[in-house]
Design a protein that fits this description.
Layout lengths: L2 H6 L8 E2 L2 E2 L9 H11 L3 E5 L2 H15 L5 E3 L3 H6 L6 E3 L6 E4 L3 E3 L4 E4 L1 H4 L10 E7 L3 E2 L2 H11 L9 E3 L21 E7 L3
Length: 200
Amino acid sequence: MSLFKRLLNPKSKSLSKKDGLSKYVPEAKLPLDERFTHNFKHNGGKFLYCITPQEVLESFDNILLENDWYEKEVFCIDQELTYRFDGFNLTFNKKPTSQFFLTKCESLVSKDGAILFSSNQIKEKKMHEIPTNLVVVATTSQFVESISEGMRVIKNKSNGKIPSNITTIKDFEIESKKEKDFMSYGRSTKNLYLLLLEDL
Protein backbone atom coordinates (compact mmCIF):
# COMPACT_ATOMS: atom_id res chain seq x y z
CA MET A 1 0.00 0.00 0.00
CA SER A 2 1.42 3.43 -0.91
CA LEU A 3 2.27 6.02 1.70
CA PHE A 4 -0.56 8.35 0.60
CA LYS A 5 -3.13 5.57 0.77
CA ARG A 6 -1.99 4.63 4.28
CA LEU A 7 -2.20 8.26 5.41
CA LEU A 8 -5.58 8.86 3.84
CA ASN A 9 -7.17 5.49 4.62
CA PRO A 10 -8.94 5.76 7.99
CA LYS A 11 -9.19 1.96 8.27
CA SER A 12 -5.48 1.34 7.85
CA LYS A 13 -4.06 -0.57 10.82
CA SER A 14 -0.47 0.19 9.96
CA LEU A 15 -0.50 3.49 11.87
CA SER A 16 -1.35 3.68 15.55
CA LYS A 17 -4.29 5.98 16.31
CA LYS A 18 -4.95 8.50 19.03
CA ASP A 19 -8.29 10.27 19.11
CA GLY A 20 -8.87 9.19 15.53
CA LEU A 21 -5.61 10.69 14.23
CA SER A 22 -2.24 9.18 13.51
CA LYS A 23 0.46 9.86 16.06
CA TYR A 24 2.56 11.11 13.13
CA VAL A 25 0.14 13.89 12.22
CA PRO A 26 1.32 17.13 13.86
CA GLU A 27 -1.06 18.79 16.30
CA ALA A 28 -3.20 21.49 14.74
CA LYS A 29 -2.05 24.91 15.92
CA LEU A 30 -4.75 27.13 17.33
CA PRO A 31 -5.00 30.69 16.00
CA LEU A 32 -2.97 33.33 17.89
CA ASP A 33 -5.98 34.78 19.68
CA GLU A 34 -7.24 31.40 20.93
CA ARG A 35 -3.78 30.35 22.13
CA PHE A 36 -3.28 33.66 23.93
CA THR A 37 -6.70 33.41 25.60
CA HIS A 38 -6.04 29.85 26.77
CA ASN A 39 -2.55 30.61 28.14
CA PHE A 40 -3.56 33.97 29.62
CA LYS A 41 -6.46 32.43 31.56
CA HIS A 42 -4.21 29.54 32.63
CA ASN A 43 -1.81 32.13 34.09
CA GLY A 44 -4.70 33.62 36.09
CA GLY A 45 -5.50 36.68 33.98
CA LYS A 46 -9.01 38.10 33.61
CA PHE A 47 -10.08 38.63 30.02
CA LEU A 48 -12.88 40.88 28.70
CA TYR A 49 -13.47 40.83 24.94
CA CYS A 50 -15.11 43.95 23.49
CA ILE A 51 -16.42 44.56 19.98
CA THR A 52 -16.96 48.33 20.26
CA PRO A 53 -15.30 51.18 22.20
CA GLN A 54 -18.58 51.55 24.12
CA GLU A 55 -18.24 47.93 25.34
CA VAL A 56 -14.74 48.78 26.59
CA LEU A 57 -16.22 51.55 28.74
CA GLU A 58 -18.98 49.24 30.02
CA SER A 59 -16.46 46.51 30.90
CA PHE A 60 -14.24 49.05 32.65
CA ASP A 61 -17.25 50.21 34.66
CA ASN A 62 -17.90 46.57 35.68
CA ILE A 63 -14.28 46.19 36.82
CA LEU A 64 -14.60 49.31 38.99
CA LEU A 65 -17.85 48.01 40.45
CA GLU A 66 -16.46 44.53 41.14
CA ASN A 67 -13.43 45.90 43.00
CA ASP A 68 -15.00 49.01 44.58
CA TRP A 69 -12.50 51.28 42.79
CA TYR A 70 -14.79 54.28 42.30
CA GLU A 71 -13.34 57.57 43.57
CA LYS A 72 -9.90 55.95 43.90
CA GLU A 73 -6.50 57.08 42.66
CA VAL A 74 -5.32 55.60 39.37
CA PHE A 75 -1.72 55.39 38.22
CA CYS A 76 -1.87 56.33 34.52
CA ILE A 77 1.00 57.59 32.37
CA ASP A 78 -0.89 57.56 29.06
CA GLN A 79 -2.68 60.88 28.45
CA GLU A 80 -5.00 59.34 25.83
CA LEU A 81 -6.29 56.81 28.39
CA THR A 82 -6.82 59.62 30.91
CA TYR A 83 -9.17 61.36 28.44
CA ARG A 84 -10.83 58.12 27.35
CA PHE A 85 -11.79 57.06 30.89
CA ASP A 86 -12.40 60.53 32.28
CA GLY A 87 -16.08 60.04 33.14
CA PHE A 88 -15.65 57.51 35.97
CA ASN A 89 -14.97 59.79 38.94
CA LEU A 90 -11.34 58.65 39.28
CA THR A 91 -8.25 60.64 40.25
CA PHE A 92 -5.57 60.11 37.60
CA ASN A 93 -1.97 60.64 38.71
CA LYS A 94 1.54 59.30 38.29
CA LYS A 95 1.87 57.86 41.80
CA PRO A 96 2.66 54.12 41.83
CA THR A 97 0.99 53.88 45.25
CA SER A 98 -2.42 54.28 43.56
CA GLN A 99 -5.19 51.66 43.75
CA PHE A 100 -4.55 50.35 40.22
CA PHE A 101 -2.53 50.95 37.07
CA LEU A 102 -4.37 51.78 33.83
CA THR A 103 -2.19 51.25 30.77
CA LYS A 104 -1.75 50.06 27.21
CA CYS A 105 0.86 47.48 26.18
CA GLU A 106 3.20 46.69 23.29
CA SER A 107 2.01 43.18 22.42
CA LEU A 108 0.01 40.17 23.57
CA VAL A 109 2.26 37.10 23.41
CA SER A 110 0.25 34.01 22.43
CA LYS A 111 2.90 31.39 23.19
CA ASP A 112 3.12 32.34 26.89
CA GLY A 113 -0.13 34.19 27.51
CA ALA A 114 2.09 37.11 28.51
CA ILE A 115 1.82 40.86 28.05
CA LEU A 116 4.80 42.79 26.68
CA PHE A 117 5.54 46.29 28.03
CA SER A 118 8.23 48.88 27.42
CA SER A 119 9.16 52.30 28.74
CA ASN A 120 6.36 53.65 26.53
CA GLN A 121 3.93 52.30 29.12
CA ILE A 122 5.87 51.95 32.39
CA LYS A 123 8.69 54.50 31.93
CA GLU A 124 11.71 53.23 33.90
CA LYS A 125 9.74 51.56 36.67
CA LYS A 126 10.24 47.90 37.53
CA MET A 127 7.19 45.64 37.78
CA HIS A 128 7.38 45.48 41.58
CA GLU A 129 7.20 49.30 41.68
CA ILE A 130 3.79 49.57 40.00
CA PRO A 131 0.45 48.75 41.67
CA THR A 132 -0.55 45.11 42.15
CA ASN A 133 -3.81 45.77 40.29
CA LEU A 134 -3.59 46.43 36.54
CA VAL A 135 -6.15 47.18 33.85
CA VAL A 136 -4.59 46.79 30.41
CA VAL A 137 -6.30 48.13 27.28
CA ALA A 138 -5.25 46.35 24.07
CA THR A 139 -6.51 45.45 20.59
CA THR A 140 -6.69 42.22 18.61
CA SER A 141 -4.07 43.54 16.15
CA GLN A 142 -1.49 43.32 18.97
CA PHE A 143 -1.32 39.50 19.04
CA VAL A 144 2.13 38.08 18.32
CA GLU A 145 3.41 34.50 18.42
CA SER A 146 6.45 35.00 20.64
CA ILE A 147 8.41 37.57 22.61
CA SER A 148 10.97 37.81 19.79
CA GLU A 149 8.17 38.70 17.36
CA GLY A 150 6.94 41.32 19.84
CA MET A 151 10.48 42.74 19.93
CA ARG A 152 10.45 43.00 16.13
CA VAL A 153 7.16 44.90 16.29
CA ILE A 154 8.67 47.34 18.82
CA LYS A 155 11.74 47.81 16.62
CA ASN A 156 9.63 48.43 13.50
CA LYS A 157 7.46 51.01 15.30
CA SER A 158 10.32 52.82 16.99
CA ASN A 159 11.88 54.53 13.91
CA GLY A 160 15.40 53.87 15.14
CA LYS A 161 14.82 54.82 18.78
CA ILE A 162 14.02 51.56 20.56
CA PRO A 163 12.34 52.09 23.96
CA SER A 164 14.11 50.86 27.07
CA ASN A 165 12.81 48.78 29.98
CA ILE A 166 11.21 46.08 27.81
CA THR A 167 9.62 43.41 30.01
CA THR A 168 6.79 40.88 30.11
CA ILE A 169 4.36 39.88 32.78
CA LYS A 170 2.58 36.55 32.91
CA ASP A 171 1.93 35.80 36.59
CA PHE A 172 -1.62 36.91 37.34
CA GLU A 173 -2.58 34.86 40.39
CA ILE A 174 -1.98 35.65 44.02
CA GLU A 175 1.02 33.68 45.27
CA SER A 176 -1.01 31.81 47.89
CA LYS A 177 -3.24 30.42 45.12
CA LYS A 178 -0.50 29.53 42.67
CA GLU A 179 2.62 27.54 43.31
CA LYS A 180 5.58 29.49 41.98
CA ASP A 181 7.96 27.65 39.69
CA PHE A 182 11.70 28.22 39.33
CA MET A 183 11.35 30.40 36.21
CA SER A 184 8.97 32.84 37.91
CA TYR A 185 11.11 33.30 41.04
CA GLY A 186 11.53 36.97 41.91
CA ARG A 187 8.74 38.20 39.63
CA SER A 188 5.86 40.29 40.87
CA THR A 189 2.45 38.67 40.73
CA LYS A 190 -0.27 41.01 39.48
CA ASN A 191 -4.05 41.05 39.55
CA LEU A 192 -4.61 41.85 35.89
CA TYR A 193 -7.68 42.65 33.79
CA LEU A 194 -7.33 42.77 30.01
CA LEU A 195 -9.81 44.86 28.03
CA LEU A 196 -9.39 43.57 24.48
CA LEU A 197 -10.98 45.58 21.66
CA GLU A 198 -11.65 43.96 18.29
CA ASP A 199 -9.96 46.10 15.61
CA LEU A 200 -9.40 43.66 12.73
